[in-house]
Specification:
The chain is α/β, with parallel strands linked by helices and 140 residues long. It is built from 5 helices and 7 strands. Strand 5, helix 3 and strand 6 form a beta-alpha-beta unit. The chain is globular, with a radius of gyration of 14 Å.
Length: 140
């Protein structure tokens, strides 16, 4: 079950750093469009994709994995297949993130249980961009 509206508002409060696992440099990909939108609304985006490690996406340095990020991250936003989320969740816990956010179509129940047991907020099968917009306009 996803968090209630007050919890989502707290998670998305600025300033906020979002590590985007699976962020593509291809502007036509949903991960790029969502991240660009979040960046335009004041969020710091940290690209995580081994294909682009050491290069820039959206003006930010890209890291090969979450464990390579040398600073604190608030949200780990996942654009990967459901079966790939569990090790990402484990890394999110280890790095002290506050939230694991699984994008639309991504619902790893084991990852959800892992991060909740560690005290993180867990969001599944929701788009962070859509939720930010909904909350900004006072939607339900």
């Amino acid at each position: 079950m996803n968090p209630d509206t007050p919890t989502l508002r707290r998670v998305l409060r600025l300033p906020c750093t979002i590590a985007v696992v699976g962020l593509s440099a291809d502007a036509s990909r949903p991960s790029f469009e969502v991240s660009q939108n979040m960046q335009a609304h004041g969020y710091r985006i940290v690209p995580v994709n081994p294909r682009y490690a050491g290069k820039g996406i959206l003006g930010e340095s890209c890291y090969a994995s979450l464990t390579d990020i040398p600073f604190a991250v608030d949200i780990v936003n996942v654009f990967r297949r459901t079966e790939e989320v569990l090790p990402i969740a484990d890394q999110a816990v280890q790095m002290g993130a506050k939230c694991l956010w699984q994008q639309i179509g991504v619902q790893n129940q084991e990852a959800d249980q892992l991060v909740r047991a560690a005290g993180l907020v867990s969001v599944m099968n929701l788009c962070i961009k859509i939720e930010r917009a909904r909350l900004a306009t006072g939607g339900y």
